[in-house]
């Protein structure tokens, strides 16, 4: 099925990034031109207006986490928040040289861990089952007397599996270990209760929740057990010295507005997205032989479908459907090779199922008609690729 010439492809890659919700853009616009003061310039009216907007957004972010306003550190991205949390927490307890993470973490967690290894820390990587779940008992078994931090993501961006973070957090708290979670994929779907879920540090993304790119936040527990961090960058001392630099007021306002909308509408959005995805999976598996569904069947974020189709390479599928829809292969393409995703390797090993995985992720503005068009096009493309390969 081919789309009309010059017609925009359907966007089905919301786990990679989301469009800015028009309501979020509306909230941001005045802070580009009308309220332009530096929020650190609190001695005059313009600065105070900007500061008030920042603090209002900080309240919205805190509410999405069940946190206190003073526990939110505003950052330039979720990646930056991860770095501040992981490196800052490890260096704050130099007598404890052991860290734990999982085999399916985002590079924004993996790379800070590798940097700490170069500084003399030891990192234990906990595996996952074939549904992409980390076992709390495996985390408990990995904790040592010198463990300072455990970092496990809230939900996986590639296969959608939700991790049992409350159970993992409880294990960490019992053992006197800080628990950090990258919640980039979570807050668009539900509010979090950091106290009930035993989370001591949490990283947040704007652009995964229909907010702008270039903004994130870090939750740092101020209540017992308190999370203590040391700065990893230096400057003017903003954000309690943990994230120096002039605050980007429009983007911060956008992050707050995006999380506020998600908190109010996430449940409704999820129910609709689950319906779209369930129908898509049913129709694809009914029409095509050799389809494997990746990730946990029920404990998964809405709007994520990871499939492997026997005999069909995901990059070939993407190229054939490039004019129809934008979606994602679960492999990274370099100049001279295609590298299978570490997430799929952790789940299935170096197997055809791992190499053939791709992800489809509709979002808030995706329609049933768009999903139907993509379903037909995907089925036709698979039939053609298999026919050519025969």
Automatic annotation (TrEMBL):
<dbReference type="InterPro" id="IPR015422">
    <property type="entry name" value="PyrdxlP-dep_Trfase_small"/>
</dbReference>
<keyword id="KW-0408">Iron</keyword>
<keyword id="KW-0663">Pyridoxal phosphate</keyword>
<feature type="domain" description="Aminotransferase class V">
    <location>
        <begin position="10"/>
        <end position="372"/>
    </location>
</feature>
<dbReference type="InterPro" id="IPR000192">
    <property type="entry name" value="Aminotrans_V_dom"/>
</dbReference>
<protein>
    <recommendedName>
        <fullName>Cysteine desulfurase</fullName>
        <ecNumber>2.8.1.7</ecNumber>
    </recommendedName>
</protein>
<dbReference type="InterPro" id="IPR015421">
    <property type="entry name" value="PyrdxlP-dep_Trfase_major"/>
</dbReference>
<dbReference type="InterPro" id="IPR016454">
    <property type="entry name" value="Cysteine_dSase"/>
</dbReference>
<keyword id="KW-0411">Iron-sulfur</keyword>
<comment type="function">
    <text>Catalyzes the removal of elemental sulfur atoms from cysteine to produce alanine. Seems to participate in the biosynthesis of the nitrogenase metalloclusters by providing the inorganic sulfur required for the Fe-S core formation.</text>
</comment>
<dbReference type="InterPro" id="IPR020578">
    <property type="entry name" value="Aminotrans_V_PyrdxlP_BS"/>
</dbReference>
<keyword id="KW-0808">Transferase</keyword>
<dbReference type="InterPro" id="IPR015424">
    <property type="entry name" value="PyrdxlP-dep_Trfase"/>
</dbReference>
<keyword id="KW-0479">Metal-binding</keyword>
<dbReference type="Pfam" id="PF00266">
    <property type="entry name" value="Aminotran_5"/>
</dbReference>
<comment type="similarity">
    <text>Belongs to the class-V pyridoxal-phosphate-dependent aminotransferase family. NifS/IscS subfamily.</text>
</comment>
């Amino acid at each position: 099925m081919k789309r009309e010439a010059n017609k925009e492809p359907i966007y089905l890659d919301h786990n990679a990034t989301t469009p800015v919700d028009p309501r979020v853009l509306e909230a941001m616009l005045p802070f580009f031109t009308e309220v332009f003061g530096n929020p650190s310039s609190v001695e005059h009216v313009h600065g105070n207006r900007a500061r008030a907007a920042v603090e209002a957004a900080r309240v919205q972010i805190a509410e999405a986490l069940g946190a206190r306003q003073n526990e939110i550190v505003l950052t330039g991205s979720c990646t930056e928040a991860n770095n501040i949390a992981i490196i800052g927490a490890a260096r704050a307890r130099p007598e404890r040289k052991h860290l734990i993470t999982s085999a399916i973490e985002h590079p924004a967690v993996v790379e800070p861990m590798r940097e700490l290894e170069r500084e003399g820390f030891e990192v234990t990587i906990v595996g996952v089952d074939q549904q992409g779940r980390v076992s709390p008992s495996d985390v408990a078994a990995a904790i040592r007397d010198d463990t300072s931090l455990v970092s496990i993501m809230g939900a996986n961006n590639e296969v959608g599996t939700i991790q049992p973070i409350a159970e993992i957090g409880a294990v960490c708290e019992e053992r006197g270990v800080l628990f950090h979670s990258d919640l980039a994929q979570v807050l668009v779907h539900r509010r979090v209760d950091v106290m009930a879920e035993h989370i001591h540090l949490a990283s947040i993304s704007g652009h995964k929740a229909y907010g702008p790119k270039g903004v994130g936040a870090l939750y740092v527990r101020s209540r017992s057990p308190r999370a203590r961090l040391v700065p990893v960058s230096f400057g003017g001392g903003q954000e309690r010295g943990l994230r120096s630099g002039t605050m980007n007021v429009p983007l911060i306002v956008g992050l707050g507005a995006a999380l506020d909308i998600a908190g109010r509408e996430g449940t409704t959005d999820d129910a609709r997205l689950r319906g779209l995805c369930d129908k898509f999976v049913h129709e694809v598996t009914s029409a095509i032989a050799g389809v494997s569904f990746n990730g946990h069947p029920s404990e998964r974020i809405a709007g994520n479908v990871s499939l492997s189709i026997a005999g069909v390479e995901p990059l070939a599928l993407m190229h054939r459907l490039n004019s129809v829809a934008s979606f994602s292969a679960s492999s990274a393409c370099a100049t001279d090779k295609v590298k299978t995703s570490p997430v799929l390797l952790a789940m299935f090993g170096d197997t055809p199922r791992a190499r053939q995985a791709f992800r489809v992720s509709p979002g808030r503005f995706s329609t049933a008609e768009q999903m139907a068009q993509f379903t037909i096009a995907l089925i036709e493309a698979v039939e053609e690729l298999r026919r050519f390969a025969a």
